[in-house]
Amino acid sequence: RHELERNHFSQFLNIDSIQEFRELLIAGVVGGLSQLNSDSLVAATYGKISDVLPDSSEGDCSFLDCALVIGASHPRERGPLMGMSSSIDAIVHEAANESLSHVIDSLPPTKALMARISMLRAFNRRARFG
After folding, report:
1. Are 119 and 32 contacting, i.e. CB atoms less than 8 angstroms apart?
2. Rounded-to-integer distance, Cα 115 and Cα 121, Å
3. How far is CA 130 from the centre of its chain?
4. β-strand partners of 35
5. pLDDT score, position 123
6. Which neighbouring-strand residues pair with 33?
7. How far is Cα 76 from Cα 107, in angstroms, rounded to an integer?
8. Does residue 49 contact residue 128 with C-beta atoms inside 8 Å?
9. What distance in Å separates the CA atoms of residue 128 and residue 89, rounded to the nearest whole number?
10. For the whole model, what pTM was predicted?
11. Contact 66, 43 (CB under 8 A)
12. What is the phi-psi region of residue 54: left when phi exceeds 0, alpha when psi lies from -120 to 50, beta otherwise?
């Protein structure tokens, strides 16, 4: 059952078109913050999750695990995702909650946040590896 739920959530995160990706990027900015400050916060949160999540390498972690942790921190998405993310160590959830605590009520949907994270990850890889 747990694996089936993770697969369903993974399918939910799929983006079907460039237009949908654009819309998610726009929607993925944390309310009340500039795009730069929002991206800085999201990148820092992703970094904190990567730092404490087992099996992470060189500041990178599983996209699905990161989405589950962020979603479980989200007040409007917490319920269904807490069960799926319960296998992830509590310290990982604590790191995300601590990082997002001051904007928790302004968070965009997890799928939109993950679109921004995917863009930031791509920029980071380009910067590191040319």
Report:
1. no
2. 10
3. 25
4. none
5. 78
6. none
7. 9
8. no
9. 29
10. 0.83
11. no
12. beta
